[in-house]
Design brief:
There is one protein chain. The protein has 309 residues and is mainly alpha-helical. Among the domains are: 47-77 and 281-309, no CATH class; 84-198 and 237-276, MetI-like (MetI-like fold, Orthogonal Bundle), CATH 1.10.3720. Helix content is 70%, strand content 0%. The protein has twelve helices and no strands. The chain has helices at 13-51, 70-76, 79-110, 117-124, 132-142, 149-156, 173-198, 202-210, 215-243, 247-252, 264-274, 278-308. Helix 1 (13-51) packs across helix 12 (278-308), helix 8 runs antiparallel to helix 9 and helix 11 packs antiparallel against helix 12. The radius of gyration is 27 Å and the shape is globular. The model has no long low-confidence stretch (mean pLDDT 85).
Length: 309
């Protein structure tokens, strides 16, 4: 004859109370780190989205009225904005591609066992440690038409005919600014790619070498596929950072000459703080965010599809 044992009922209420208390403690500990994000990032973002649908202007005690899509209809016919947007895409694409190519070559070099490799790695990240304003001032001195290092160098080597006002000429202003952007942003890309190279197992290169693969074949078949997730991540971030550039180009040219280096962020800045049209400037920012997110979504989808094949 079997006997049935009846387990006493377990009161789960204290356990649930402990779980709620633990969650409350976690949220309380996260609050000091979340509060700056909410105040400095989330709230300004929501405020900017709201202002894009209003006629907000500079001044004290100025009434703000909801205007719906009026700013966006005006934006569609604003040739100055679309010109700045094309310049911004050209700037961001050129700087990102050149940064990646040069940073990849430098990372491959710094990954080798060379003398003074540690010193070379430190020197490679020096531009990254400099604020954009300082970089802009230094390069303005380099490009100075009368006392600049570049024109002086051309004079010394007998190429006096190539001397020009690099930041004031319509044909050279944007390429000159792109060079500065590449120089300033290349170190961060180099550091990320160097970290990715060091994570590639050395055994894969040794196995490929045993199979008779030369250096280029090992790079194409082993290194590049292993680096692909890193490449997708860093090029995407670089594109966002470059498209949103402001301080560097503002110090170098302030958008001139004749708007040839007028990036979208500079254009929005001019609308907001020179002309006082906060609502229209906010609408510009909202449109730029949507377009950049769409472009990045297409790019990331294509790159990740290629990486998974």
């Amino acid at each position: 004859m079997t006997t049935l044992t009846v387990r006493p009922a377990v009161d789960r209420a204290p356990r649930r109370r402990r779980r709620r208390s633990d969650r409350a403690t976690v949220y309380l500990l996260l609050l000091p780190s979340l509060l700056p994000v909410l105040v400095l990032s989330v709230f300004p973002l929501l405020r900017g989205i709201y202002l894009g649908f209003t006629d907000a202007r500079a001044g004290r005690n100025v009434e703000i009225s909801f205007t719906g899509l009026a700013n966006y209809r005006e934006l569609l016919h604003d040739e100055l904005f679309w010109s700045s947007f094309r310049i911004g895409l050209l700037w961001a694409f050129s700087v990102t591609v050149l940064q990646f190519l040069l940073a990849l070559g430098l990372a491959l070099l710094l990954n080798q066992r060379l003398r003074f490799r540690g010193l070379a790695r430190v020197l490679a990240v020096v531009p990254w440690a400099m604020p954009p304003v300082v970089v802009g001032i230094l390069w303005r001195l380099v490009y100075h038409p009368d006392a600049g290092l570049l024109n002086e160098f051309l004079y010394r080597i007998g190429a006096d005919g190539l001397r020009t006002t690099w930041l004031g000429d319509f044909s050279t202003a944007l390429p000159a600014v792109i060079i500065v952007g590449v120089w300033a942003g290349m170190p961060q890309t180099t550091v990320v790619l160097l970290a990715g190279l060091q994570s590639v197992p050395r055994e894969l290169h040794e196995a490929a070498a045993v199979d008779g693969a030369d250096a280029w074949q090992r790079f194409r078949s082993v290194t590049l596929p292993s680096l692909m997730p890193v490449i997708v991540a860093i090029t995407s971030l670089d594109f966002i950072w470059n498209f949103n550039s402001f301080g560097l180009v503002y110090v170098l040219t302030a958008g001139g000459p004749g708007g040839r280096t007028m990036l979208p962020m500079l254009f929005a800045y001019e609308e907001a703080f020179r002309y006082g049209d906060y609502g229209y400037a906010a609408a510009l920012g909202n449109v730029m965010v949507v377009i950049v997110v769409a472009l990045l979504a297409v790019y990331l989808r294509r790159r990740l599809r290629e990486a998974n094949q």
